[in-house]
Amino acid sequence: MREVRIRLGILAVVLALAVPAGTTRAAAGGTCPRGARNCLDATIAQMQQQFEAEAATCDHTAVFTLAYLRVTQTYRWAGGAGVPAAWSIAFDAARHHSVTALGDALLGMNAHINRDLPYVLAAIGLTGPGGASHKPDHDKIQQLLAATIQPVLDEIAARFDPTATQYGGLGTAGALQLIATWRDLAWHNAELLAAAPTPEARSLVALTIEATSAVEAEALVATNGYLPLLQSSAPIPQAR
């Protein structure tokens, strides 16, 4: 069940960011492919419902759900003002069709891991009641990602953008290594947040997290754009 949830979680990021962009991918059903406002409203309503259910049972996933709910609400209601830079860059890239579907996916994962994850880990707690570290549990997620990332990339390629799997196993291995590096950094930053002796010290850690995740996002935009004359954001023709 955890493997399925993680796979769906990764795909949810892709669906949230890649589908509205319309970049070299097939259109999905419903009102979401163009990023319509009623789609955002429906998404917010669904996220709110999910958060309330998780919060009522003290589910740890509620912390993530709340973080994404607030980001999505801010993006919808404030036109992007106040959205963390890493997420703002990801949303802008999707809105302007400026990167491939894989680029959209990586931008979403960067914002999730490099920006959001340190805060959530620090809020949940890095150790158990007896003082044992939760790091082994954190590392086990990488094993689950290794088992699910290829099916996710295959689905992205089939539904949105065939270039998502153009590098084959080498591309999959590279993506896994990148995610592993990001997750290690997220844990380290969570440790710094938890150990900060003063609010000022914590603010400095937070500034580093915001800056690092934004720089990473900018690099992803620069390296995942369309090749002139060879690629475009035109939808994939649908078979009749």
Structure explained in plain terms:
There is one protein chain. By secondary structure, the chain is mostly helical. It has one domain. It is built from 8 helices and no strands. Helix 4 packs antiparallel against helix 5, helix 5 runs parallel beside helix 7 and helix 5 runs antiparallel to helix 8. The radius of gyration is 18 Å and the shape is globular. The protein starts with a helix and ends in a 17-residue tail after the last helix. The N terminus is likely disordered.
The SSE string, one letter per element, is: HHHHHHHH
Number of strands: 0
Mean pLDDT metric: 77
Estimate what percentage of residues fall within beta strands: under 5%
Coarse structural class: mainly alpha
Largest sheet: none
Question: Tell me, what's the shape?
Answer: globular
Distance between the termini: 36 Å
Number of helices, where a helix is a run of at least 4 consecutive DSSP H or I residues: 8
Count up the domains.
1
Level of helix content? Answer: over 70%
Low-confidence stretches: 1-31
- Estimated radius of gyration: 18 Å
Short descriptors:
single chain, disordered N terminus, globular, mainly alpha, 8 helices, 240 residues
Ordered list of secondary-structure elements with their pairings:
Layout: H1 2-21, H2 37-56, H3 61-77, H4 85-95, H5 101-124, H6 135-159, H7 168-195, H8 199-223
